């Protein structure tokens, strides 16, 4: 706050300075005179923003023992007897006192210097014997000056909006202005004077502290305390006070300027309370927006409410989806015995004050259950509850439940209090709505996930159908060899021909049979592993191993169709965190599609390498030189049930399954194709994000 604004706000300082019979100036930190009374201006002369040492002492720099500097430095009052030079050149002996003036933050904004000219006093003491007939004239002039000062002072005294009280050295009230009478709650000045001592205005030992500070420092600025008015009325006050001294320098009394700050303090408390409530609403809103855990939201909300409200217990009820039952979902501050009662756990809409609130959405207040018509009033009184507010919980115009805020002692449900509870109720309503939406989304996700698994399994069975013919060849050939050798050995047994040469043949036959049987077992094992339905099992897997197992299933089919396989695997590829069987399913579908696109034979190229320009991914590239994909079909090939194959040769789920599996693995599928020249599918899988 600027000095001028501060002085404007405290007009009585300016008025008191102007009415003083001493020389009074206000000096800022730069040693500039920012205000002076008329007496000072007339006797010393000054220009705006003159420096005090230039005006007082006619010097070019500040004094070595500068009272202003001391006061700004330590915040205390100081005094000294000094010689100063008047405007007319006369040197006067002055008793100078420096007093700090502070703003509302306790910061010193300027220093008031009050100088009493004691030159005359000294001259009187030195020449009192010489004084004769002109003494009466001098006294008359002095009395006239005092009378004028008294008139100015009286004007300030009576017109001040702050209480001004004058006391003697013992604290006895000797004068009070009309503002003081009104602030203290009395009707006449006589009633205030009858108090005798200002001690009766202070609580407990506060006066002793106040008196000590004023006596030691000579003044006190904005001493904050509680004062006691008529009929024990207490109010907040700021007191600015200083001592008055007689000609001998002894304390002659005290001047107290009292400002009633009760309204200001009340307003500050309201603002603080509002800020606290806004902070709580903000915290609750953040919790609601950042968490889908409904229980966590309710727990944190209840804790926040109980921390600042007068209430000491809270219950929150949630209306079920059918709007037929209120269920207790959170509570705090009530006994286990009371809260476990059936009517506390569940309530039908319309049942009691709680049930009626969820019917009409109106807030209900009970300040005394002795006068309540609630059917459960006896149990509520037995639990010690005295006051309760029933707050409807809603969002988007739909009632979601009820919040009961209760206390075991009387509380007043002011308008601001209810507004705050209603705002919290709206936030809880949003949380309930979010929880419902989350449950619905979660259920839908689980259903979708199950449907995806079924589609994948269906596509596996379709793939097994395609494999049937080729697998038959894979198994029949080894079995034919085994059968042939078995027949040979039976002939040997029939002829009983077990010569050493024949035994060597039999041994060779058995080794071959073992090898061929193992091939059949491996084929069957791969088929069982591929067809088995299981949950996702994420683990580190070699992409080369997955490709080898996949190509082994279709190798015979490629041979029958006259398709040449070119496989290139970049060495030292990192392992991919994936579900082995699902990635195998996706790659098998792509290889089958490539095979189907080359009915007259061709070249199938399979590559695996790190992705160019992005070492977080590796690419599996499957290319054919078949019929290709029409431009108009490229955007639809991953859609479920879209197919370009002849009827009976596909249902359009293969590429849809591929897309779903790769996407679930945080990967991507890209395709390049040209009609008549073939297609290339590129699968990109991350290997360092899991």
Report on this model:
With 690 residues, this protein is of the alpha+beta class. It folds into four domains: 3-124, PAS domain (Beta-Lactamase); 163-260, PAS domain (Beta-Lactamase, 2-Layer Sandwich), CATH 3.30.450; 268-440, 2-Layer Sandwich (Beta-Lactamase); 534-690, Heat Shock Protein 90 (2-Layer Sandwich). The strands form five sheets. The protein has a six-stranded antiparallel β-sheet with strand order 13-12-11-16-15-14. The longest helix is centred in the middle third of the chain and has 81 residues, at 415-495. The protein is elongated and about 170 Å long. The model has no long low-confidence stretch (mean pLDDT 76).
The 3D shape can be described as elongated
CATH architecture of the largest domain: 2-Layer Sandwich
Strand content: 15-25%
Q: What is the strand arrangement across the widest sheet?
A: 13-12-11-16-15-14
Low-confidence stretches: none
Whole-number count of domains: 4
| Biggest beta-sheet profile | 6 strands, antiparallel
The CATH topology of the largest domain turns out to be Beta-Lactamase
Mean pLDDT: 76
Instruction: Work out the radius of gyration.
Output: 50 Å
CATH homologous superfamily (4th level) name of the largest domain: GAF domain
Question: How many alpha or pi helices?
Answer: 21
CATH level 1 name of the largest domain? Alpha Beta
């Amino acid at each position: 706050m600027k000095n001028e604004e501060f002085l404007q706000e405290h007009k009585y300082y300016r008025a008191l300075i102007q009415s003083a019979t001493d020389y009074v100036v206000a000096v800022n930190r730069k040693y500039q005179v920012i205000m002076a009374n008329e007496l000072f201006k007339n006797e010393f002369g000054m220009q705006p923003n003159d420096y005090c040492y230039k005006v007082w002492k006619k010097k070019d720099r500040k004094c070595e023992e500068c009272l202003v500097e001391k006061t700004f430095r330590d915040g205390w009052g100081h005094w000294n007897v000094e010689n100063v030079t008047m405007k007319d050149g006369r040197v006067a002996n002055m008793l100078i006192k420096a007093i700090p003036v502070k703003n509302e933050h306790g910061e010193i904004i300027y220093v008031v210097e009050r100088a009493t000219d004691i030159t005359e006093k000294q001259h009187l003491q030195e020449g009192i014997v010489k004084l004769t007939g002109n003494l009466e004239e001098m006294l008359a002039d002095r009395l006239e000056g005092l009378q004028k000062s008294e008139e100015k002072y009286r004007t300030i005294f009576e017109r001040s909006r702050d209480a001004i009280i004058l006391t003697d050295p013992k604290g006895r009230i000797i004068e009070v202005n009309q503002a003081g009478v009104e602030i203290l709650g009395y009707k006449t000045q006589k009633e205030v004077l009858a108090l005798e001592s200002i001690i009766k205005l202070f609580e407990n030992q506060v006066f002793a502290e106040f008196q000590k500070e004023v006596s030691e420092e000579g003044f006190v600025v904005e001493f904050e305390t509680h004062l006691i008015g008529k009929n024990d009325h207490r109010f907040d006050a700021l007191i600015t006070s200083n001592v008055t001294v007689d000609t001998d320098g002894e304390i002659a009394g005290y001047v107290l300027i009292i400002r009633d700050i009760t309204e200001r303090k009340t307003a500050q408390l309201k603002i603080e309370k509002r800020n606290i409530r806004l902070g709580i609403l903000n915290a609750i809103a953040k919790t609601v927006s950042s968490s889908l855990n409904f229980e966590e939201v309710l727990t944190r909300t209840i804790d926040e409410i109980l921390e600042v409200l007068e209430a000491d217990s809270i219950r929150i009820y949630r209306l079920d989806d059918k709007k037929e039952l209120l269920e207790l979902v959170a509570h705090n501050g009530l006994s286990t015995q009371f809260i476990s009662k059936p009517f506390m756990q569940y309530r039908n809409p319309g049942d009691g004050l709680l049930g009626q609130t969820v019917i009409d959405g109106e807030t209900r207040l009970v300040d005394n259950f002795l006068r309540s018509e609630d059917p459960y009033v006896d149990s509520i009184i037995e639990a010690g509850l005295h006051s309760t507010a029933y707050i409807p919980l809603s969002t988007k115009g739909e009632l979601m439940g009820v919040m009961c805020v209760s206390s075991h002692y009387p509380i007043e449900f002011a308008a601001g209090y209810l507004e705050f509870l209603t705002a919290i109720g709206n936030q809880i309503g949003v949380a309930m709505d979010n929880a419902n939406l989350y449950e619905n989304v979660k259920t839908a996700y689980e259903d979708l996930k199950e449907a995806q698994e079924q589609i994948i399994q269906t596509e596996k069975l379709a793939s097994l159908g395609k494999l049937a013919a080729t697998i038959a060849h894979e198994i029949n050939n080894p079995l034919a060899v085994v059968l042939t050798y078995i027949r040979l050995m039976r002939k040997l047994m029939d002829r009983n021909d077990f010569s050493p040469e024949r035994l060597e043949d039999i041994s060779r036959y058995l080794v071959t049979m073992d090898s061929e049987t193992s091939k059949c077992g491996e084929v069957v094992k791969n088929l069982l592993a591929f067809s088995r339905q299981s949950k996702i099992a994420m683990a580190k897997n070699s992409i080369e191993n997955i490709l080898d197992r996949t190509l082994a299933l279709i190798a015979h089919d490629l041979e029958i169709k006259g398709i040449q396989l070119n496989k290139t695997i970049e060495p030292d590829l990192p392992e991919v965190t994936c579900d082995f069987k699902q990635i195998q399913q996706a790659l098998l579908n792509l290889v089958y599609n490539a095979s189907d696109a080359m009915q007259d034979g061709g070249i199938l190229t399979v590559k695996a390498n790190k992705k160019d320009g992005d070492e977080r991914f590796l690419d599996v590239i499957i290319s054919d030189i078949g019929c290709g994909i029409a431009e108009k079909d490229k955007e639809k090939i991953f859609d479920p049930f879209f197919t370009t194959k002849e009827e009976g040769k596909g249902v359009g789920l293969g590429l849809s399954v591929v897309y779903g599996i790769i996407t679930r693995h945080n990967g991507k599928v890209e395709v390049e194709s040209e009609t008549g020249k073939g297609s290339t599918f590129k699968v990109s899988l991350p290997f360092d994000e899991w």
